[in-house]
Amino acid sequence: MFAAAGVLAGLASAVSAQVSGDLAGREWITAAVEATGLSHRTFHSAAVGRAVSYHIYRPEAYGAERDRPFPVLYWLHGSGGGLGGLPQLAGHFGTAMREGKIPPMLVVFPNGLDQSFWMDSKDGTVPMETVLMDELVPHVDATYHTIASREGRIVEGFSMGGYGAARLGFKHNATFGAMSILAGGPLQREFTETPRASEEARERVLRNVFGGEHAYFREQSPWMLAEENADDLRGGTRIRLVIGDRDEMLQVVRDFHSHLTDLAISHDFIELPGVGHIAPQILNALGEDAWEFYRPQG
Protein backbone atom coordinates (compact mmCIF):
# COMPACT_ATOMS: atom_id res chain seq x y z
CA MET A 1 0.00 0.00 0.00
CA PHE A 2 1.06 3.58 -0.57
CA ALA A 3 2.36 5.79 2.22
CA ALA A 4 0.00 8.61 1.34
CA ALA A 5 1.39 11.11 3.83
CA GLY A 6 4.88 10.74 2.38
CA VAL A 7 3.67 11.29 -1.15
CA LEU A 8 1.64 14.34 -0.22
CA ALA A 9 4.51 15.82 1.77
CA GLY A 10 6.78 15.38 -1.23
CA LEU A 11 4.28 16.98 -3.54
CA ALA A 12 3.87 19.90 -1.14
CA SER A 13 7.65 20.39 -1.13
CA ALA A 14 7.70 20.38 -4.92
CA VAL A 15 4.97 23.00 -5.07
CA SER A 16 6.82 25.15 -2.52
CA ALA A 17 9.96 24.94 -4.64
CA GLN A 18 7.94 25.99 -7.66
CA VAL A 19 6.64 29.09 -5.93
CA SER A 20 10.04 30.06 -4.51
CA GLY A 21 11.77 30.77 -7.81
CA ASP A 22 11.04 31.66 -11.42
CA LEU A 23 13.45 29.02 -12.73
CA ALA A 24 11.85 26.09 -10.91
CA GLY A 25 9.64 25.29 -13.90
CA ARG A 26 12.67 24.89 -16.17
CA GLU A 27 14.77 22.47 -14.13
CA TRP A 28 15.79 19.98 -16.80
CA ILE A 29 17.96 18.16 -14.27
CA THR A 30 16.19 17.36 -11.01
CA ALA A 31 17.64 16.29 -7.71
CA ALA A 32 18.32 12.58 -7.36
CA VAL A 33 15.80 10.60 -5.34
CA GLU A 34 17.03 7.50 -3.52
CA ALA A 35 15.02 4.30 -3.16
CA THR A 36 15.66 0.59 -3.61
CA GLY A 37 16.06 -0.19 -7.30
CA LEU A 38 15.69 3.48 -8.30
CA SER A 39 18.44 5.33 -10.19
CA HIS A 40 18.84 8.94 -11.34
CA ARG A 41 20.11 9.22 -14.91
CA THR A 42 20.60 11.87 -17.60
CA PHE A 43 20.77 11.95 -21.39
CA HIS A 44 21.67 14.70 -23.81
CA SER A 45 18.67 16.35 -25.44
CA ALA A 46 19.24 17.95 -28.80
CA ALA A 47 15.80 19.56 -28.52
CA VAL A 48 16.78 21.66 -25.49
CA GLY A 49 20.54 21.65 -26.04
CA ARG A 50 21.43 20.28 -22.61
CA ALA A 51 21.24 17.26 -20.36
CA VAL A 52 17.82 16.13 -19.15
CA SER A 53 17.27 13.84 -16.17
CA TYR A 54 14.96 10.95 -15.47
CA HIS A 55 14.64 8.26 -12.81
CA ILE A 56 14.38 4.58 -13.61
CA TYR A 57 13.37 1.59 -11.48
CA ARG A 58 15.09 -1.68 -12.38
CA PRO A 59 13.73 -4.87 -10.80
CA GLU A 60 15.95 -7.51 -9.26
CA ALA A 61 15.37 -9.75 -12.28
CA TYR A 62 16.97 -7.15 -14.54
CA GLY A 63 20.39 -7.67 -12.97
CA ALA A 64 20.03 -11.43 -12.90
CA GLU A 65 18.79 -11.90 -16.48
CA ARG A 66 20.75 -9.43 -18.57
CA ASP A 67 19.91 -11.06 -21.91
CA ARG A 68 16.18 -10.94 -21.27
CA PRO A 69 14.23 -7.99 -22.77
CA PHE A 70 11.93 -6.25 -20.30
CA PRO A 71 8.71 -4.29 -20.83
CA VAL A 72 8.79 -0.61 -19.92
CA LEU A 73 6.23 1.44 -18.00
CA TYR A 74 6.52 5.21 -18.50
CA TRP A 75 4.96 6.91 -15.45
CA LEU A 76 4.13 10.61 -15.93
CA HIS A 77 3.86 12.84 -12.88
CA GLY A 78 1.39 15.63 -12.21
CA SER A 79 1.98 19.35 -11.74
CA GLY A 80 4.79 20.24 -9.38
CA GLY A 81 7.36 17.68 -10.54
CA GLY A 82 6.37 14.62 -8.51
CA LEU A 83 9.80 13.87 -6.99
CA GLY A 84 8.36 13.32 -3.53
CA GLY A 85 6.27 10.38 -4.70
CA LEU A 86 9.04 8.43 -6.46
CA PRO A 87 10.11 6.20 -3.53
CA GLN A 88 6.51 5.17 -2.90
CA LEU A 89 5.84 4.54 -6.59
CA ALA A 90 9.02 2.48 -6.95
CA GLY A 91 7.98 0.48 -3.90
CA HIS A 92 4.43 0.10 -5.18
CA PHE A 93 5.49 -1.46 -8.48
CA GLY A 94 8.56 -3.22 -7.08
CA THR A 95 6.52 -5.05 -4.44
CA ALA A 96 4.00 -6.12 -7.08
CA MET A 97 6.83 -7.54 -9.19
CA ARG A 98 8.40 -9.43 -6.29
CA GLU A 99 5.01 -10.88 -5.36
CA GLY A 100 4.34 -12.00 -8.94
CA LYS A 101 1.33 -9.73 -9.44
CA ILE A 102 2.94 -8.16 -12.51
CA PRO A 103 5.91 -9.28 -14.60
CA PRO A 104 9.31 -7.69 -13.95
CA MET A 105 9.53 -4.44 -15.87
CA LEU A 106 11.48 -1.22 -16.06
CA VAL A 107 9.61 1.81 -14.74
CA VAL A 108 10.78 5.12 -16.19
CA PHE A 109 9.89 8.36 -14.42
CA PRO A 110 10.56 11.17 -16.92
CA ASN A 111 11.19 14.73 -15.83
CA GLY A 112 8.14 16.67 -17.06
CA LEU A 113 9.06 19.97 -15.39
CA ASP A 114 6.46 21.78 -13.33
CA GLN A 115 3.63 22.37 -15.80
CA SER A 116 4.66 21.20 -19.25
CA PHE A 117 1.49 19.13 -19.66
CA TRP A 118 3.79 16.67 -21.43
CA MET A 119 3.53 18.50 -24.75
CA ASP A 120 5.47 20.96 -26.85
CA SER A 121 4.52 24.47 -25.81
CA LYS A 122 3.07 26.68 -28.52
CA ASP A 123 6.07 29.03 -28.41
CA GLY A 124 8.54 26.14 -28.65
CA THR A 125 10.44 26.99 -25.47
CA VAL A 126 9.44 23.74 -23.73
CA PRO A 127 9.56 20.90 -26.30
CA MET A 128 8.47 18.27 -23.80
CA GLU A 129 6.72 15.89 -26.18
CA THR A 130 9.72 15.98 -28.49
CA VAL A 131 12.11 15.29 -25.60
CA LEU A 132 10.04 12.35 -24.39
CA MET A 133 9.00 10.71 -27.64
CA ASP A 134 11.92 11.48 -29.97
CA GLU A 135 14.75 11.32 -27.43
CA LEU A 136 13.96 9.60 -24.12
CA VAL A 137 12.11 6.57 -25.49
CA PRO A 138 14.88 5.80 -28.04
CA HIS A 139 17.50 6.45 -25.33
CA VAL A 140 15.86 3.94 -22.99
CA ASP A 141 15.66 1.31 -25.72
CA ALA A 142 19.33 1.88 -26.64
CA THR A 143 20.57 1.88 -23.05
CA TYR A 144 18.59 -0.91 -21.39
CA HIS A 145 17.37 -4.36 -22.37
CA THR A 146 13.81 -3.56 -23.41
CA ILE A 147 10.99 -4.92 -25.51
CA ALA A 148 11.38 -2.12 -28.03
CA SER A 149 7.90 -2.24 -29.52
CA ARG A 150 4.42 -1.02 -28.65
CA GLU A 151 3.63 -4.42 -27.13
CA GLY A 152 6.35 -3.79 -24.56
CA ARG A 153 5.44 -0.22 -23.58
CA ILE A 154 2.79 1.22 -21.28
CA VAL A 155 2.26 4.91 -20.53
CA GLU A 156 0.51 5.89 -17.30
CA GLY A 157 0.08 9.17 -15.50
CA PHE A 158 -1.76 11.05 -12.80
CA SER A 159 -3.52 14.45 -13.16
CA MET A 160 -1.33 16.45 -15.58
CA GLY A 161 0.40 13.13 -16.21
CA GLY A 162 -2.97 11.55 -16.98
CA TYR A 163 -3.52 14.24 -19.58
CA GLY A 164 -0.07 13.42 -20.95
CA ALA A 165 -0.76 9.68 -20.99
CA ALA A 166 -3.98 10.27 -22.93
CA ARG A 167 -2.40 12.69 -25.41
CA LEU A 168 0.72 10.66 -26.04
CA GLY A 169 -1.07 7.33 -25.99
CA PHE A 170 -3.67 8.46 -28.52
CA LYS A 171 -1.24 10.34 -30.76
CA HIS A 172 1.63 7.82 -30.58
CA ASN A 173 -0.37 4.61 -30.49
CA ALA A 174 2.30 2.95 -32.63
CA THR A 175 4.70 3.47 -29.70
CA PHE A 176 2.48 2.54 -26.73
CA GLY A 177 0.31 -0.54 -26.61
CA ALA A 178 -1.47 0.51 -23.43
CA MET A 179 -2.31 3.71 -21.58
CA SER A 180 -3.62 4.34 -18.08
CA ILE A 181 -5.23 7.73 -17.41
CA LEU A 182 -5.49 8.38 -13.66
CA ALA A 183 -7.59 11.45 -12.78
CA GLY A 184 -6.33 13.03 -15.98
CA GLY A 185 -7.01 16.61 -16.88
CA PRO A 186 -7.89 18.74 -18.63
CA LEU A 187 -9.75 16.18 -20.74
CA GLN A 188 -12.54 18.48 -21.86
CA ARG A 189 -12.95 19.72 -25.43
CA GLU A 190 -12.81 23.40 -24.46
CA PHE A 191 -10.52 25.05 -21.91
CA THR A 192 -12.90 27.82 -20.91
CA GLU A 193 -13.09 26.56 -17.34
CA THR A 194 -11.58 23.86 -15.16
CA PRO A 195 -13.08 22.59 -11.92
CA ARG A 196 -9.77 22.04 -10.12
CA ALA A 197 -8.04 25.35 -10.79
CA SER A 198 -8.67 29.03 -10.31
CA GLU A 199 -9.36 31.27 -13.26
CA GLU A 200 -5.89 32.77 -12.81
CA ALA A 201 -4.25 29.34 -12.92
CA ARG A 202 -6.24 28.33 -16.00
CA GLU A 203 -5.24 31.52 -17.80
CA ARG A 204 -1.58 30.97 -16.87
CA VAL A 205 -1.58 27.44 -18.31
CA LEU A 206 -3.45 28.61 -21.41
CA ARG A 207 -0.87 31.35 -21.93
CA ASN A 208 2.33 29.45 -21.09
CA VAL A 209 1.53 26.08 -22.67
CA PHE A 210 -1.00 26.84 -25.39
CA GLY A 211 0.15 30.33 -26.36
CA GLY A 212 -3.14 31.80 -25.17
CA GLU A 213 -4.91 30.10 -28.09
CA HIS A 214 -8.02 28.01 -27.47
CA ALA A 215 -7.66 26.63 -30.98
CA TYR A 216 -4.24 25.19 -30.07
CA PHE A 217 -5.69 23.65 -26.92
CA ARG A 218 -8.43 21.94 -28.96
CA GLU A 219 -5.95 20.78 -31.59
CA GLN A 220 -3.69 19.20 -28.96
CA SER A 221 -6.42 17.84 -26.69
CA PRO A 222 -6.97 14.12 -26.03
CA TRP A 223 -10.60 14.80 -27.01
CA MET A 224 -9.61 15.69 -30.59
CA LEU A 225 -6.74 13.19 -30.80
CA ALA A 226 -9.19 10.41 -29.93
CA GLU A 227 -11.34 11.46 -32.88
CA GLU A 228 -8.39 11.72 -35.26
CA ASN A 229 -6.91 8.35 -34.28
CA ALA A 230 -10.09 6.42 -33.53
CA ASP A 231 -9.53 3.81 -36.23
CA ASP A 232 -6.08 2.93 -34.90
CA LEU A 233 -7.20 3.01 -31.28
CA ARG A 234 -10.01 0.55 -31.95
CA GLY A 235 -7.50 -2.13 -32.81
CA GLY A 236 -5.54 -3.58 -29.95
CA THR A 237 -4.80 -0.58 -27.72
CA ARG A 238 -5.59 -1.11 -24.05
CA ILE A 239 -7.00 2.01 -22.39
CA ARG A 240 -7.83 2.51 -18.73
CA LEU A 241 -9.65 5.64 -17.54
CA VAL A 242 -9.84 6.09 -13.75
CA ILE A 243 -11.42 8.79 -11.56
CA GLY A 244 -12.48 9.09 -7.93
CA ASP A 245 -16.09 10.06 -7.26
CA ARG A 246 -14.89 12.86 -4.94
CA ASP A 247 -12.65 14.39 -7.58
CA GLU A 248 -13.69 17.80 -8.87
CA MET A 249 -12.97 16.52 -12.39
CA LEU A 250 -15.51 13.70 -12.10
CA GLN A 251 -18.04 15.07 -14.59
CA VAL A 252 -15.33 16.04 -17.07
CA VAL A 253 -13.93 12.51 -17.00
CA ARG A 254 -17.41 11.03 -17.28
CA ASP A 255 -17.96 13.16 -20.39
CA PHE A 256 -14.63 11.97 -21.80
CA HIS A 257 -15.67 8.37 -21.13
CA SER A 258 -18.90 9.02 -23.06
CA HIS A 259 -16.89 10.55 -25.91
CA LEU A 260 -14.69 7.46 -26.20
CA THR A 261 -17.78 5.27 -26.08
CA ASP A 262 -19.41 7.27 -28.88
CA LEU A 263 -16.25 6.78 -30.93
CA ALA A 264 -16.41 3.01 -30.29
CA ILE A 265 -12.96 3.12 -28.67
CA SER A 266 -12.86 0.23 -26.24
CA HIS A 267 -11.66 1.17 -22.75
CA ASP A 268 -12.08 0.32 -19.09
CA PHE A 269 -13.80 3.09 -17.13
CA ILE A 270 -13.32 2.86 -13.37
CA GLU A 271 -15.04 5.22 -10.93
CA LEU A 272 -13.66 4.82 -7.42
CA PRO A 273 -16.03 5.49 -4.50
CA GLY A 274 -14.79 7.80 -1.75
CA VAL A 275 -11.63 8.79 -3.60
CA GLY A 276 -10.48 12.33 -4.35
CA HIS A 277 -7.73 13.80 -6.51
CA ILE A 278 -4.93 12.01 -4.66
CA ALA A 279 -2.64 9.55 -6.43
CA PRO A 280 -2.03 7.19 -3.47
CA GLN A 281 -5.77 6.94 -2.82
CA ILE A 282 -6.38 6.04 -6.46
CA LEU A 283 -3.67 3.38 -6.66
CA ASN A 284 -4.70 1.82 -3.36
CA ALA A 285 -8.43 1.89 -4.21
CA LEU A 286 -7.87 0.14 -7.55
CA GLY A 287 -7.15 -3.02 -5.58
CA GLU A 288 -5.72 -6.37 -6.58
CA ASP A 289 -7.74 -6.76 -9.78
CA ALA A 290 -6.05 -3.67 -11.23
CA TRP A 291 -2.73 -5.47 -11.64
CA GLU A 292 -4.18 -7.30 -14.63
CA PHE A 293 -3.73 -4.12 -16.67
CA TYR A 294 0.07 -4.38 -16.49
CA ARG A 295 0.25 -8.02 -17.55
CA PRO A 296 0.93 -9.12 -21.13
CA GLN A 297 -2.20 -9.64 -23.18
CA GLY A 298 -2.91 -12.51 -25.53
Description:
By secondary structure, this protein is of the alpha/beta class. The chain has a single domain (25-294), classed as Rossmann fold (3-Layer(aba) Sandwich). It is 38% helix and 16% strand. The protein is built from eleven helices and eight strands. The chain has an eight-stranded mixed beta sheet with strand order 1-2-4-3-5-6-7-8, with helices on both faces.
Summarize the structure.
The protein is an alpha/beta fold. Helices cover 38% and strands 16% of the residues.
Task: Throw out a few tags for this protein.
298 residues, alpha/beta, Rossmann fold, 8-stranded mixed β-sheet, 8 strands, globular, disordered N terminus
How are the SSEs placed, and which strands pair?
Layout: H1 4-20, E1 38-45, E2 50-57, H2 60-64, E3 72-76, H3 86-98, E4 106-110, H4 128-143, E5 153-158, H5 160-171, E6 178-182, H6 199-210, H7 214-220, H8 222-228, H9 230-233, E7 238-244, H10 250-262, E8 268-272, H11 279-286
Parallel strand pairs: 3-4, 3-5, 5-6, 6-7, 7-8
Antiparallel strand pairs: 1-2, 2-4
CATH class division: Alpha Beta
Give, in spatial order, the strands making up the sheet with the most strands: 1-2-4-3-5-6-7-8
Sheet-strand content, in percent, reads: 15-25%
Number of helices: 11
Low-confidence stretches: 1-25
Number of strands: 8
Helix vs. strand class = alpha/beta
Task: Based on Cα principal axes, name the global outline.
Answer: globular
